[in-house]
Amino acid sequence: MTSTPAPAPAATPGRDGTAALDSYRRAAIIGGGVIGISWAGLFLARGIDVVINDPRPDIEDLVRAGLDEITPALAALGLPTDHLTDGLRFEADLATAVADVDIVQENGPERLELKQQIWGTIERSAPAHALLATSTSSIPATAIAEALRHPERLVVGHPFNPPHLVPLVEIVPGRQTSPAVVERARAFYAALGKRPQVLRKEIPGFVANRLQSALFREAVSLVAQGVVTEQELDDIVTASIGLRWAVGGPFRTFHLGGGPEGLPHFIEHLGRAMATDMWPALGNPTFDDTTVATLVSQAREAFGDDTVAQLAAVRDRAQIALMRALGETPDANSGSAERA
Amino acid sequence: MTSTPAPAPAATPGRDGTAALDSYRRAAIIGGGVIGISWAGLFLARGIDVVINDPRPDIEDLVRAGLDEITPALAALGLPTDHLTDGLRFEADLATAVADVDIVQENGPERLELKQQIWGTIERSAPAHALLATSTSSIPATAIAEALRHPERLVVGHPFNPPHLVPLVEIVPGRQTSPAVVERARAFYAALGKRPQVLRKEIPGFVANRLQSALFREAVSLVAQGVVTEQELDDIVTASIGLRWAVGGPFRTFHLGGGPEGLPHFIEHLGRAMATDMWPALGNPTFDDTTVATLVSQAREAFGDDTVAQLAAVRDRAQIALMRALGETPDANSGSAERA
After folding, report:
1. Which domain holds residue A61?
2. Which residue of A has its CA nearest to B250?
3. How many CB pairs under 8 A join A and B?
4. Which of B198, B228, B248 is the last residue of a domain?
5. Which chain A residues in 292-311 lie under 8 Å from chain B, judged by CB atoms?
6. pTM of the predicted model, to two decimals?
7. Which of A2, A83, B289, B332 has the fewest beta carbons under 10 Å from its own?
8. Which residue has the higher pLDDT, A186 or B332?
């Protein structure tokens, strides 16, 4: 526990109640890029003081501009944003930055040696009670923890970008991560209003990115073959599987699409046919020059002159409307729909 | 045009306006299974009289029970359901059933010879102006139309199940389907309130099912490997990519996830790595005995004692709430979110 009284406002209620957030008054965010800024905004809105550690000389300007950009989304989610940056500070020395925090969320470059070096310093300098989490999307905790004296302390807390908005956090224990740390991480992210999911095995890419990657391979193949354009494929997804999978995942969807006997019947009557007829026929595209030229040219047509930031703002508003409809926003006490 | 005055109420406004529905007063639904019932409910709610043709002796009971089951969803979508079955009748003789209709929507068994035989009869008996569409999910219009004297008349109008609820209709022209028929089909489904998408090439499984199948292959692989359970994987999808893809498809998602330069930057910096590192590492599962036993047992745990109908009703309510949030319900005049 920290020894000085924290000036931050009381944390707003999380989905698991406030208790789990009471012991988190100060957070260190290592790496102030897009992911770090998003975590920082969410932590601050939840009443957790944040210190940013990042070697870039202009980091304070970058982070403050980034926080300004995501503040409307935080407010739309129902989180308090009036004094968002009151608890924000910057510390260029890593050891000093983590010296008195309750949680370290690291978002550094995806290079194993660098992460091992960063985590060696964090382990030596952070309080013994601090929760130690890396946002890595590709490096197993087991590999990073080889450089640690206490590998049981490190866990992957991989958000689906951006963390202030998308509910998922994949918690991936390394071989030596202690079950108590896994449970603390789960409770912490849940109290932040996220939907954490603990994986049972380390696997490259974890789960969400592997699934996304599998669908994207076929998407690229279909566009490269000229079956549909990018815009048309996107429209097909939002009008069918996207809408479906926002309320029930693929197993539930097929359970409900297999008649009264559910998934077992689906597997026998449609799944086996899918495995023998469809899976071997799926595309195996490459990003050769022709394919890249097609994708780039169609992206220009599809997304026009709007900037990425403008398009993202529209998307984020739509996504928050969906979350609100599902009772999934952090402030939701009166969701209008049950989650399937 | 039909020669007798139609007693059906005037069609309610569709997304493309009412004009496109004015010339559709009577529809023949061939095959009164789950898909046929869903189409029938939607057509009736839109003020189109429906005649059901199906050889089963108990077809009338089946269809009326099925319509009772989907009526709450039709009402929740904002469609009028007070006198839903006033315009419903049954006709066991195929030639008679299609003799005076403006649209034939065929949902027979997925067997080429049978479909050729059915469509031969329809072509000989239906009015020359009737729109001829098959709901097939797997047989190309080109193959069915080989048995027709006027192959230019037939088009695939493949719904994503159930058609009264999921917006997508994939319109897939055969090699000889006339462009005028394709455009009539598009305008018709759009006027019904659907989001039709015309494909540019025939390909087995069309687009949505191929994409779904690609993701499901990796999903089965991850569960078979014990990385997550079915329930956990479903939760990961609804908390991340499902929510994303409900508001923007995979290309838009990566366009917005690649920094200010969008998709081209994504392809160079993440897409190429995905193609070389991730795609070759994706799973290639089979439905062997162990995998099937795992899937069946976890389905029992995940879905418990609720019936498929109960679970589907919950899912459908949630989906309608999402569609309403996106301004996507047929009655939407005041959608609260822009579609990305």
Report:
1. 19-198
2. A234
3. 389
4. B198
5. 292, 295-296, 298-299, 302-303, 307-309, 311
6. 0.91
7. B289
8. A186
